Amino acid sequence: MLRSLRRVAFAGSMGRFLRSSDIGAADIAGNDPGAKDNDPSKSAMTHSIGFFLYPGFQLLDLAGPLDAFQAANDAAGRTLYRTIVLSRQGGQVLGSAGVVIATTSDEAGSYGTLMVLGGDVARMLCPEEVAAVRHLAAGAPRLASVCTGAFLLAEAGLLDGRRATTHWSCVRALRQRFPSVIVEADRIFVADGPVWTSAGITAGIDLALALIETDHGVDLARAVARELVVYHRRPGGQSQFSTMSDLEPSSDRMRLALTFAREHLAEPLTIERLAEAARLSPRQFGRAFLKETGETPAKAVERLRVEAARLRLQGGAEPIEFVARAVGFNDPERMRRAFVKRYGQPPQAVRRVDRLRSKGSDTDEKEQI
To answer: Is the pTM of this model over 0.90?
Structure first.
């Protein structure tokens, strides 16, 4: 019954089913905010997680992580996580999707993890909400945010001098408003000591899986991912978006050409081959591709190859020359120039930075709090 209620609430985030519904905090969480736990690494203890809501919060930022932690309880056969939905004053809180969630007051107790949700930035940054988060954070050994929730943590002074991320569309605003925060734009999530931040909306599930893995190991996190039917798990350093989605052609013909290019990167990709995949003449294809994507076919193919090369460099120890050939850069020097143009660094430097990031993220994720 409890899982059914959570799934109905999840559907409401699409604006189709639950409008102005009233779901109690105990119903959606299924737990009593009784015990407190200051050491999530001790698997024998129950770890309390407080989800902080405010008017205009994003429903999926709540439903995704909440269901992940409940799935961890189900997979373990006992209560590893006690989840509490709270707000500054308690009572009903209206989210961005028009769904009302009943919450408990922020004075209900302290929490092992305080998770701040994304949503309406202007409303979350009102002084009263900021003060409430600052008060709650003082008693929480671990802090986390989903999507634009990073703005609320930053406004409360909790991200000063720390690495953080947020939804890709809000990166510039976060940097401008909070210059003391080290914003890493192209990350799914970032762990800087006891403070975790994640990218847009569904990245909250990736964040929850990472926390579960940190607390209880990879096997449990993998079991939760299978239950939720999600990938286990996108690494924190993975890009928030790819060249394919960045180009965003509007027609099926251009998408066919890009898909063909991605699947045949190691082969010569002339405009004639791409035009054939799109079922257009080379001249028609060239004009249409530039109009829909803002780039020439040659530049788009280069971007796809650079992205593929970077993924191979991140995940293995293959020689640069081998990677260059594997993605269609027959000359390593051509790949070097493409990397410098796109990333400002040659492949060797990009590989070194990515490895350091990955190592630092792994260390942060495994830190015992």
So the answer is: no
Count of alpha carbons within 13 angstroms of residue 326, beta-carbon side:
13
d(CA 225, CA 233): 7
pLDDT tens readout for residues 164-209:
999 877 888 999 999 999 988 767 888 999 999 998 778 899 899 9
| Tokens describing residue 97 | 């999707």
Q: Which of 147, 225, 257, 278 is catalytic?
A: 147
Q: Domains in the chain: how many in total?
A: 2
Show the domain range for 50: 2-240
Domain identity same for 263 and 277: yes
Question: Is residue 150 pLDDT above 70, yes or no?
Answer: yes
Q: Is 126 a catalytic residue?
A: no
The token duo for 336 is: 């070097």
Closest by CA to 153, choosing from 121, 127, 182, 130, is 130
Query: At how many degrees (to 10) do helices 332-343 and 297-315 cross?
Result: 90
| Residue 70 burial (CB count, 10 A) | 23
Residue 193's region, left for phi above 0, alpha for psi from -120 to 50, else beta, is left
The CA distance from 360 to 290, in Å, is: 40
Identify which of 322, 314, 286 has the alpha carbon closest to the alpha carbon of residue 301. Answer: 286
Domain termination residue (choose one: 206, 240, 274): 240
Q: Give phi and psi for 207, each to the nearest 5.
A: -65, -45
Which residues are paired to 164 by β-bridges? 183
Which of 186, 212, 240 corresponds to the end of one domain? 240
CB 220 within 8 A of CB 76: yes
Instruction: Tell which residue, 91, 151, 144, 75, has the closest CA to residue 114.
Output: 144
**Do 59 and 44 lie in a common domain?**
yes
- State how beta strands 189-192 and 195-198 pair: antiparallel
For residue 368, is it within any domain? no
The tens digit of pLDDT for each residue in 280-333 reads 999 999 999 999 888 899 999 998 999 888 888 876 678 999 999 999 998 899
- H runs (alpha helix) in 168-319: 171-177, 203-216, 218-228, 243-247, 252-263, 271-278, 282-293, 297-315
Residue 49 has what DSSP assignment?
E
Confidence of residue 39 (pLDDT cuts 50, 70, 90): very low
